[in-house]
Specification:
Largest sheet: none
Helix content: 55-70%
Structural class: mainly alpha
Radius of gyration: 19 Å
Order of helices and strands: HHHHHHHHHH
Distance between the termini: 61 Å
C-alpha cells in the first residue's frame, strides 16, 4: 500500500496559498477598521504580501540548491528556516503598528485560523503513506498537533459566544497549541539524519529539506506559531486597555 500511494506535490503550495489569502484577507479587514489613510493601509497590505511571497520564493530556490539538505551540523538547516521568521514576528507583535492592528483583529479569528493544521497533518500522513515521512511524525505515531486544528473550531466558537471565559480559554488553547507544536518539531529533528538522531526507523525526515516539504518548517510552522504569538499578545493588549 505504501509503495503504491503517491502524494500530489501541489497540495503543499496550494494549502500555503490558501493560508496566505486568508491571512491577507484578515489583515485587510483589520486595516479597514483603523481609520488610517488608504495609502497607508495599502502599503501595509502590499508589504505583508511581498514578505510572505518573497520568503516562500526564497525557501523554494534555496531548497532546489540543496542548502537545507546538509544535516551534518546542528541545528539542522530546516530548523533555521523555521526560526528565521520568529524575530520579525515578535518585532511586529510588539510594534506600535502591530499593536494597533491586533487590537482590531477578532480574537476568534486568530483561533479559527489554526484549523489549517488539520490539513497539514493530513498531508503529513499522506507523505507517510507514500514512504516519504516516518510514522512518528504523523498522528498515527507521536504527532498530536492535529488536536490543535480540531480544537480550534469549538474553542473559536466558545470565544465568540462566551465572553466570560474567552480570555482563559484562549490562553489555555494557545499554550497547548505551542506545546504540541514544539513536540512535533522535536520529533522531526530527532528523525532527521543528524548526529543526535534518536528515531532510527526509515525513512528519515531528510525529505523535509526539499521542495515542497520545506514549506512545512519554513512557512506553515511559522504561520502556526505566529498565530499563537499574536493571540497571546492580543490578550495582554486588551487587558491593558481594560485596566486603563
Amino acid at each position: 500500500m505504501k509503495s503504491s500511494f503517491s502524494t500530489p506535490g501541489f497540495l503543499w503550495p496550494l494549502l500555503l496559498l490558501i493560508c496566505i489569502i486568508l491571512i491577507l484577507s484578515g489583515v485587510y479587514q483589520a486595516l479597514k477598521k483603523t481609520g488610517w489613510k488608504r495609502q497607508r493601509r495599502l502599503t501595509i497590505l502590499f508589504t505583508a504580501t511581498v514578505i510572505l511571497l518573497a520568503w516562500t520564493a526564497i525557501l523554494t530556490a534555496l531548497s532546489y540548491k540543496g542548502l537545507f539538505a546538509d544535516f551534518g551540523k546542528l541545528p539542522p538547516r530546516p530548523v533555521l528556516a523555521l526560526l528565521a521568521p520568529l524575530p520579525f514576528v515578535l518585532l511586529f507583535a510588539f510594534s506600535k503598528t502591530g499593536t494597533q492592528i491586533l487590537r482590531l483583529v477578532p480574537s476568534h479569528w486568530l483561533i479559527f485560523m489554526q484549523s489549517f493544521r488539520i490539513f497539514v497533518e493530513v498531508l503529513i500522513w499522506f507523505a507517510f503513506l507514500a514512504s516519504k515521512f516516518p510514522v512518528q511524525m504523523t498522528f498515527e505515531g507521536r504527532n498530536f498537533d492535529v488536536l490543535t486544528g480540531i480544537l480550534a473550531l469549538p474553542v473559536g466558537y466558545l470565544v465568540i459566544n462566551r465572553k466570560t471565559y474567552s480570555s482563559r480559554l484562549s490562553i489555555a488553547f494557545n499554550v497547548a497549541g505551542i506545546l504540541l507544536l514544539l513536540n512535533i518539531i522535536i520529533i522531526a529533528v530527532f528523525s532527521m539524519p543528524v548526529p543526535i538522531r534518536y528515531f532510527m526507523n526509515e525513512p528519515s525526515a531528510s525529505l523535509i529539506a526539499q521542495f515542497p516539504f520545506i514549506l512545512l518548517p519554513g512557512v506553515l510552522v511559522p504561520i502556526a506559531y505566529s498565530l499563537h504569538i499574536f493571540s497571546l499578545r492580543q490578550f495582554f493588549i486588551k487587558k491593558q486597555i481594560v485596566s486603563i
